[in-house]
Amino acid sequence: MSDAETTFGSHSEFGRLREVVVGSAQNLHLPPYGKDLSHYNPELRDGLLANGQRPLDVAATFPERHAATVEQMEGVAATYERFGVKVHRLRPYRPEETQYLGHLQAGWSQLYPADPVFVVGKHFMEISIRRAYRRKEVFPLRDIVLPMIEADPEAHYVAMPPSAPWTPSGEGPGPFLEGGDILVHGQDIIVGHGELCSNPAGVAWLKRYIERWGYRVHPMEIRGPILHALGVMCLLREGLLMAYLPALKDGLPEPVKDWEVIELTEAEMNAHATVGVSLDDQHYMIDPRFNRVMDEMGRRGVEPVPTPCDAIGFWGGAIRCITLPLRRDPA
């Protein structure tokens, strides 16, 4: 087998997927409502507002939705295993970890491990997420990833400079860089930035850090209160992507500007059609609600793998958000 098949590293968006971390909905406590949660749906926003300035116990407040979320996350993990992907699960938080940075933003979550860290090639990066309550997610992830890095002499481990504390006038300058904004295609890295996610300072940090290894960083500005580049665009196979084009301020970025596009409606974008996961360049995990999108993919040689995730999506993410790829082959 090749090195890509046996060692740490994620080299693409649609090469064969081999090893992942899947998040957890256990003990989920969301923070009091604020600007950085404005992408939440009205029902969830109302629940946070009604709870005041305390963390919201999701299982107690939304028991049926929480149970459905747990069931669907187990279904995602089972689908990976069915396709031969090794799955890691996160340990629970320790009590002291749940309180980390609580003076900035109370709450704790392990739903979406693909945001506070990311793997580009053989580089494991603890990055700088905008929502302070999520910065503690790196601690359980280290328990899984660091032994893999220590076993691979070619692997790199780096942590971004921490974001400046919030002030009464706003969130501060960052730098903010979030895994949901990063798309990898060989040596090209597309990085979204916008009002709810990564910012230019975070993109600049990534460019300075990683381009010395031959990577090329391509910023992609996102219009409006949309969370993450993966919320508006995903790469399906060489020469094919799907996207909600009105959200891209300057159109498609240079590495993919000539690719064929499956264009999405705003409703499909809001329901997270682009936040599935490619198992390889012929199989894409997607919620079965997207019949039109699945038909378009199938006509272009990409087989949909129906994977329910509407309950997961209630909290603002989907399959890709709960999945951190640790080993993925080059495209």
Polypeptide structure, described:
The chain is α/β, with parallel strands linked by helices. It has a single domain (about 10-330), classed as L-arginine/glycine Amidinotransferase, Chain A (5-stranded Propeller), CATH 3.75.10. Helix content is about 25%, strand content about 25%. It has a 4-stranded mixed β-sheet, with helices on both faces. It has a 3-stranded antiparallel β-sheet with strand order 4-3-6. It is globular, with a radius of gyration of 18 Å. The chain starts with a helix and ends with a strand. Residues about 1-5 have low confidence and may be disordered.
CATH architecture classification name = 5-stranded Propeller
Q: Uncertain spans, ≥5 residues at pLDDT below 50?
A: 1-5
What structural category arises from helix and sheet content?
A: alpha/beta
Annotation, overall tally of beta strands = 19
C-alpha Rg, in Å? 18 Å
Tally of helical runs: 10
Q: Report the helical percentage.
A: 25-40%
Characterize the largest beta sheet: strand count, sense, and whether it forms a barrel.
4 strands, mixed
Widest sheet, order of strands: 1-19-2-5
Mean of residue pLDDT values? 94
Q: Which helices and strands appear, and what pairs or packs with what?
A:
Layout: H1 3-6, E1 9-10, E2 17-22, E3 24-30, H2 42-50, E4 56-57, H3 58-61, H4 63-82, E5 86-89, H5 95-98, E6 108-110, E7 117-120, E8 123-126, H6 138-150, E9 156-159, E10 182-185, E11 188-193, H7 200-210, E12 216-221, E13 233-237, E14 240-243, E15 260-263, H8 266-270, E16 277-280, E17 283-286, H9 291-299, E18 303-306, H10 310-313, E19 323-328
Parallel strand pairs: 1-19, 2-5, 8-9, 11-12, 14-15, 17-18
Antiparallel strand pairs: 2-19, 3-4, 3-6, 7-8, 10-11, 13-14, 16-17
